[in-house]
Design goal:
Number of strands: 0
Order of helices and strands: HHHHHHHHHHHHHHHHHHH
Radius of gyration: 21 Å
Largest sheet: none
Structural class: mainly alpha
Shape: globular
Mean pLDDT: 85
Number of domains: 2
Helix content: over 70%
Strand content: under 5%
Distance between the termini: 55 Å
Low-confidence stretches: 70-74
CATH class of the largest domain: Mainly Alpha
CATH topology of the largest domain: Na+/H+ antiporter like fold
Length: 414
């Protein structure tokens, strides 16, 4: 990789991410939408030839390293920095989590998770069979619709100051559980691993996390804060703890962000949190988190809009994906004890899909669950549904929490 081009890419990615984020906020849209949109421009650099002409487009192609899904091969530094962004985002979410509130919303989160997975899974499976696909391929279609993209929802809830609400806590818990269920389902459908091994690894991870949380981390943070006096020493060690939790979760069940979230929850109860939490947010929001959403936007291939067959299948999937999650998780939240207003908020927060859906699609294709003759069609349709669900969620969430946002403004004004 050209190191100069790497630096150039990061520079324009961050600068324009903040510019686009500010523009979105000025028109009353969540700033994360601007970062994703800027990533879409960088990722689909081929469109520049229509704007600037082939000469300038060719020059930009040499210098901008984020160029859509097919260009990510071999760009590990960009890829890893973006992954660190979502890890940092979930770590911050964990640090800001009220454990007592998390316990109180556990019933709602659990029921809404199960319902929010069952509805799109069954609807997707039925739709696949109705369209003439085989049993295994139809199940793979259903699995694609089950897991929520936790990053978009968490970032939006943070921006509107609703992550610490009961709906925010329940949504975060439900999205984490969504990921676990989504991974288990794709393993089952594709036969690419063992459900038993996955379950054992999950239990081991939680046992380690709980032991660390309740016995060792308070002791470690206390003595690190007391004896490590080097500049930002406590910050460095706590970020190291986050990375170790992430590594364990990635090794156990390929879900590093869940490890980061549990690391944040573990450290949320230590008194020393106030010393390093603000510094974590500076690093996250100043560098890594915007880069993740730019990178996310870069994966959204706009070329899918040129394939009519993929558009038709994509529209079907989008309707099922949105309806299945909103209805399933919403009804689950209502059964769990939320009123209909909060249940709707829970449902809307589960709309976006990204990383787990793309991983599930890749596994479905490589395992043969989706035959090669249908692979490109499924890729196009999945990219379309990922684009739409990712882009519509931030404004929908802001609309769903409009009443709470207005109440917060009135309290602040008074």
């Amino acid at each position: 990789m050209n190191f100069t081009a790497f630096l150039f890419t990061l520079g324009i990615a961050l600068i324009f991410a903040k510019i686009f984020s500010t523009l979105c906020e000025r028109v009353k849209l969540p700033g994360v939408l601007g970062e994703i949109f800027w990533g879409m421009l960088l990722g689909n650099i081929v469109i520049y030839s229509y704007i600037f002409g082939p000469t300038i487009s060719s020059w930009l192609h040499q210098w901008i390293l984020i160029r859509g899904p097919s260009a990510f091969e071999g760009l590990e530094p960009v890829h890893y920095m973006a992954k660190l962004g979502i890890i940092m985002l979930l770590f911050i979410a964990g640090l800001d989590t009220d454990i007592e509130q998390l316990k109180s919303t556990g019933k709602v989160a659990t029921i809404s998770t199960v319902m929010g997975v069952m509805f799109p899974l069954i609807l997707g499976w039925i739709a696949g069979l109705s369209l003439g696909y085989g049993m295994r391929e139809s199940l793979a279609m259903g699995v694609l619709l089950t897991a929520t993209s936790i990053g978009v929802t968490v970032r939006t809830l943070m921006e509107i100051n609703m992550l610490t609400s009961d709906v925010g806590a329940a949504s975060l818990s439900a999205s984490v559980m969504d990921d676990f269920l989504g991974i288990a389902l794709i393993i089952f459908v594709t036969g690419t691993g063992s459900i038993l091994i996955f379950g054992i690894n999950l239990v081991i991870f939680f046992l380690v996390a709980l032991v660390a949380a309740w016995y060792y981390m308070p002791w470690i943070s206390k003595y690190v804060g007391k004896y490590i006096k080097t500049e930002k020493g406590l910050l460095g060690i706590m970020i190291g703890v986050m990375l170790l939790f992430s590594a364990l979760a990635q090794y156990s069940f390929a879900a590093a962000i869940e490890g980061a979230y549990f690391a944040g929850i573990t450290l949320s109860r230590v008194p020393e949190k106030r010393i390093f939490s603000n510094d974590v947010k500076v690093i996250g929001y100043g560098l890594l988190i915007p880069l993740f959403f730019v990178y996310t936007g870069a994966q959204l291939d706009l070329g899918v809009f040129t394939n009519l067959q993929a558009i038709v299948l994509g529209i079907i999937i989008i309707v099922i994906a949105i309806a299945g999650k909103v209805i399933g998780r919403g009804i689950g939240a209502r059964i769990g004890g939320f009123d209909w207003h909060k249940s709707l908020q829970m449902g809307i927060g589960s709309i976006p899909r990204m990383e787990v859906a793309l991983v599930s699609l890749t596994l479905a294709i490589t395992s043969g669950a989706v035959p090669k003759e249908h692979a490109q069609l499924f890729i196009g349709a999945t990219m379309l549904f990922v684009i739409v669900t990712t882009l519509i969620t931030p404004p929908l969430l802001k609309w769903a929490f409009k009443r709470e946002i207005e109440e917060m403004k009135m309290k602040t004004a008074s």
